[in-house]
Amino acid sequence: MLKVRTAVLVSGGGTNLQALIDASGRGELPDAELALVVSNRKSAFALERAEKAGIRAEYIGKDGFEQKLGALLDECGIELIVLAGFLKILSADFTEKWPGRIINIHPSLIPSFCGEGYYGLRVHEEALKYGVKVTGATVHYVNHIPDGGRIIFQKAVNVLEGDTPELLQRRVMEQAEWILLPEAVEKVAKEIRYGKSC
Ligand code: GAR
Hints:
Elements: E1 4-10, H1 15-25, E2 32-39, H2 45-52, E3 56-59, H3 65-75, E4 80-83, H4 92-96, E5 102-106, H5 121-130, E6 134-141, E7 151-158, H6 165-194
Parallel strand pairs: 1-2, 1-4, 2-3, 4-5
Antiparallel strand pairs: 5-6, 6-7
Helix pairs in contact: 1-6, 5-6
The structure holds glycinamide ribonucleotide.
């Protein structure tokens, strides 16, 4: 059986994409093939990371985004979609076509600091403003509710005295996101490839 052809959707720097590329290079994604990277921002550095790794990289602009994305995913035979710092909300029409086949990484312990408007640095700003002592990251399935799909993995990270949003973001990435995302991609790809009972 072939590996699960996987598309990664990005909007920015792409450190989570890089974690997937590196994990794949170390042989830690035996059931997933990183086949396509799509950005909704032309200048996303993630596109360069993909090209450097020899992965097809495409930018799709605002006009007809989901229609064009759907056609590209079909053309590439994609079976699994990973949102890795993808900051556009996908419509219910789109997510309903991919049940159990889209996963997302979010930089907090859902259900805290999540939902529409909570993305990137803003999540860590709000966590610090609230004064939580523990935050973290969550990988979850994507449905029509922003950050509302079933949780796959979570990992807690301590908030430290003197943290800034930038420091906290970096710690959450290093201690949680870059570890959890490859593990989740492998778990879901394996289930798609061999069925849930394996
Ligand atoms: C990551 O922290 C990711 O969890 C977050 O954006 C950052 C992207 O970084 N995603 C969200 O906030 C989604 N709601 P990256 O481009 O370096 O991977």
